[in-house]
Write a structure and sequence with these properties.
Blueprint lengths: L1 E5 L14 H12 L5 E2 L4 E5 L5 E6 L6 H11 L7 E7 L7 E4 L8 H10 L6 E5 L9 H5 L8 H21 L1 H8 L7
Parallel strand pairs: 1-4, 1-5, 5-7
Antiparallel strand pairs: 2-3, 3-4, 6-7
Length: 189
């Protein structure tokens, strides 16, 4: 079974922020694929697709502790890291872009840093979603914890839909196919 884990912060306060794009994508997939998220045996929500091929996951920890939820899940389920995809926002990518990767460093993303630290490897597939590279100075939290601007929302909707298609490609065809098909797209143009 493949596990698609969207990173974000729980609670209404964070729902519309840039940092929660991973949650938005999971929410979109749960509706589109008719998956119901329920409490797991730990700090996460999980819903298995009726096909038995994949599950959608939302950690209930705050972003900086996302790794705790994933290790909770690993303890109770047979999770193969190469068949897991972590979906999260990336401050360094422009809005409208996304990057599938088979592994790599966490960069400056504290949620992914927590995941890498807790699982003990950088070899976990991920989908980085660009949230806007216009951020220049000051604490990054001031930018990532703000909502998208009204004029950005059509691009955000396209990104969520396209990311969902890319995730289905990852599930059925693997990371290489998803990379080849979706990494070069720029939905903002």
């Amino acid at each position: 079974m493949k596990y698609i884990i969207g990173l974000g912060n729980p609670g209404k306060k964070y729902r519309e922020t840039r940092h929660n794009i991973g949650f938005r994508i999971i929410d979109f997939l749960t509706e589109k694929q008719h998956v119901t998220l329920m409490s797991g045996k730990g700090e996460y929500l999980l819903g298995e697709h009726r096909s038995g091929k994949y599950a959608l996951v939302k950690p209930l920890t705050y972003m900086n502790n996302s790794g705790n939820a994933i290790t909770d899940m690993q303890r109770h389920r047979q999770v193969k890291l190469r068949e897991t995809l972590v979906v999260y926002d990336d401050l360094d990518l422009p809005l409208g872009t996304m990057r599938f990767r088979p592994g790599g460093s966490a960069g400056t993303h504290r949620g992914m840093e927590s995941v890498v630290d807790k699982i003990g490897t950088t070899r976990i597939p991920r989908l980085r979603i660009g949230i806007g590279s216009e951020y220049k100075t000051g604490p990054s939290e001031d930018f990532v914890l703000t909502p998208f601007a009204t004029d950005e929302l059509p691009v955000v909707q396209d990104v969520v839909k396209t990311a969902a298609d890319g995730i289905m490609s990852f599930i059925h065809e693997g990371i290489q196919r998803a990379m080849n098909t979706y990494n070069k797209r720029d939905l903002a143009t």
